[in-house]
Amino acid sequence: MTERAKLWQRVSTGGQDEASQLPDLIGWCDTHKYEYDVDERYVVHGKSAYHKKQAAALEQAISDMANGKYTVLVVWAFDRIQRGSTLEAFMLAERARVAGGRIEYTQDTYLNETNEMSDVMLALAATAARAESKRKSERIRIKQNALRATGSVTGRPPWGYEIHCTVCDAPPRRPECKPHQKIFIPTAEGRRFVPPIFKMVIDGVSLRDIAEWLTGEGAGGKVWHEHYLSLRLIKNPVYYGQRRNAGQLETEALVSYSVWQQANAALASRVRPGRSTSKNEKALLSPTCSNPHCDATGKHPSPMYRIHTRDGWFYRCHGTGPQRRGCGNMIPLGELDKRVIESMESDHMNLHTDRVFIPGDDRSDEIGKLREKGAEAMKRGDYGAATDCMKHAEELEALPLIAPHWEEVETDQTEGEYFTSLDVAGRRRELAENWIVSAHRESDGEIMLVIVHKTFQSA
Question: Are 297 and 284 in contact (CB under 8 A)?
Answer without folding.
Answer: no
